[in-house]
Write a structure and sequence with these properties.
The structure is a homodimer of 373-residue chains. By secondary structure, chain A is of the alpha/beta class. In chain A, the strands form three sheets. Chain A has a seven-stranded mixed beta sheet with strand order 2-8-7-6-5-3-4, sandwiched between helices. Chain A has a three-stranded antiparallel beta sheet with strand order 9-10-12. In chain A, helix 6 links the parallel strand 3 and strand 4. In chain A, helix 4 packs parallel to helix 10 and helix 12 packs across helix 13. The model of chain A has no long low-confidence stretch (mean pLDDT 96). Chains A and B meet through helix 2, helix 3, helix 5 and helix 10 of A and helix 2, helix 3, helix 5 and helix 10 of B.
Chain lengths: 373, 373
């Protein structure tokens, strides 16, 4: 349909792509399931056991359309965050929220700032609405707040994307730095503060929530620490003028009723969340030690993954990645230099990490062999 | 944010609306749950019991992102329909599919044709992408294929929306009429054939699927006969050039993993589907008889609801509707004259229909009283 005259000029110009190829696609291609699934920063420890009861109960009501206001989950999140429900907007994952927000603000001729190597799905949405993307480099393997703000000023950007903690490097800035960034957002610009990994970050990573400040919209998810990537639940936090603008164009019945219930149950079990973040921290330490044992350099991580500097170039890291995948370990790596000297390993239960540890020496040996040629 | 200078001009012009107010919103406002839920054409008989097992099994994998290709459900649908997976595009309900399709084809200056009183969410998407909507009247309480085609020619439309069977009237055209309509679609135009209610329609309602014809895209759902409105599962059927164009802009991880599994289980149990459509037919007859018993005129229905002509004007029908709602019966009605002389009652289990039957005399008496004043 690329050449179909019925498409809008913008749609005709876009490729039909998948921002991320799923592990299932790779499994279908090889005919072999992965033995470890450590590539998408999922939480292999899973959600609170109470989520399963909530899903089973909600299944009995699966014949009913979901509440388009997501009222119960929205109210629970607002209470948890000590804000009002108007300051919360829920949709099917941060991906969906990023798409709606981009649609609200960005059209052809509008400028957007992100970091080179940051979240590809955001870039996909910007391209999908005709925006012009400007990427600034990471500095010392962290996103560079000053450079992002400077670029936003330079190009009169309407949106800045900034993740804290960051993916794919796992690094973070402290709350004071983020607050300074928010206060520097240029007039006419909105800062997207993606906090998908906040629950696994050190205390002091997130600035206090201030819903009177319309310069920033924060995005969080049940896909990471809460262990519910498959249920697609994300939420935005911000000034009500910003969050409620989503009602202009969002798909009001886009959230599954089962996911609404799963999110409520997961949020209610903060004890489990605390326990699972402890497990993630232990897994992070273990992955780091495995990397060190093989002469690699694990980056300090504030997330549920460890990014490992393979201490050579992107070709070498890709060879290591390929060696792991060939050995049944699903992992991913950053796509842009110089970040692509690294591979990225998600935390998970010990058997999954055991499988990674067992596969790494062979993958490294293969990569070194290839590299010498 | 309506006056926020950061919004695109189009977004700034749009109201922050909900196309349909959910029954939960009404329940929260009154503080009283509805005793019968017959307003959204949900299937109160529920999905196949096998769906519950499938959901429970999928819940164990809820920590994993869903397959962005929806491969297993897509393949199952393709096999069921005797087409290839490339001819199927799955997303979170027909609402989502309509939004993506509108985005692909429609921008400011583009023209779209529908029927006056047809699906409001489609109109919402057209407005949301800046299209100009042209509505032709129903003829004898059915959508008017010839008038839709004539209008499409007149305004050089890029999209026509046509539902068969139709909502909100429940009427239908036969396959030959639909085929004639497809062959009359003007160059440069695409016909959306919404078949959400097909499973409850008489044999001979749907023309054969011809995926070589890029003039039509058909949309179907698990929300109606399959009893899974809460899981948000819709699919489009068409020429691969059309269905695969969705990959340009769709939210690839928009489908919940639980919903993917629920859809597969529902599709696999065609015996249950057959049985439930029998129950729906019986419920349809019962609702029609109740209407006749009170001097009202039920329209012939090919859907899982019965539209009842209250034999007076829209003010009177609205009074009947209000009387039913005040008595705890959630129902809806068409929004545009002359269709709005009717109320619309979804099929459901006997206790729900009993509650409707018990409430109707009082609602009618109140409406007649109000009308006399």
């Amino acid at each position: 349909m690329t050449n179909d005259p019925r498409l809008t000029p913008l749609a005709a110009s876009l490729p039909a792509t998948v921002p991320f190829v799923g592990p299932e696609t790779q499994e279908r291609a090889t005919g072999t399931p992965f033995t470890a699934r450590l590539g998408a920063n999922e939480n292999g420890f899973g959600p609170s056991p109470k989520v399963f009861d909530a899903i089973a109960a909600a299944a009995n009501d699966a014949w009913k359309y979901p509440d388009p206001e997501n009222h119960d989950l929205c109210t629970a999140l607002a209470a948890h965050l000590d804000i009002t429900p108007d300051n919360v907007m829920i949709d099917a994952g941060i991906d969906t929220l990023l798409g709606v927000l981009t649609r609200l603000l960005i059209g052809p001729g509008d400028h957007v700032v992100t970091s080179a190597g940051a979240y590809p799905t955001f870039n996909y949405h910007v391209a999908g609405f005709g925006g012009t993307l400007h990427a600034v480099p990471y500095r010392d393997d962290r996103e560079d707040p000053a450079a992002l703000i400077a670029m936003a000023n330079e190009v009169s950007a309407k949106l800045i994307y900034f993740a804290n903690p960051d993916n794919p490097m796992g690094t973070h800035h402290d709350a004071a730095t983020v607050t300074g960034m928010i206060t520097s957002v240029p007039d006419g610009c909105l800062l997207i503060l993606d906090e998908a990994y906040l629950e696994t970050a050190p205390k002091g990573t997130a600035p206090p929530i201030d819903v009177t400040d319309s310069r920033v919209i924060r995005m969080r998810t049940f896909s990471k620490a809460y262990g519910l990537a498959g249920a697609r639940i994300g939420y935005a936090i911000g000034h009500a003028d910003v969050t409620q603008a989503f009602n202009k164009v969002r798909n009001h019945f886009g959230m599954s009723r089962l996911s609404q219930a799963a999110g409520r149950a997961a949020l209610a079990d903060q004890t489990y969340l605390h326990d699972v973040t402890e497990k993630i921290a232990q897994s992070r330490d273990r992955i780091s030690q495995i990397a060190k044992d093989h002469g690699l350099l694990p980056l300090p991580s504030a997330t549920n993954f460890v990014t490992i500097d393979c201490r050579q170039d992107g070709v070498f890291a890709k060879a290591v990645l390929d060696g792991l995948i060939a050995r049944g370990i699903f992992v991913r790596m950053p796509g842009v230099a110089p970040l692509n000297r690294c591979i990225r390993i998600s935390c998970g239960p010990d058997p999954q990490i055991d499988a990674f540890a067992a596969a790494l020496p062979g993958a490294l040996a293969d990569a070194q062999e290839t590299h010498r040629r």
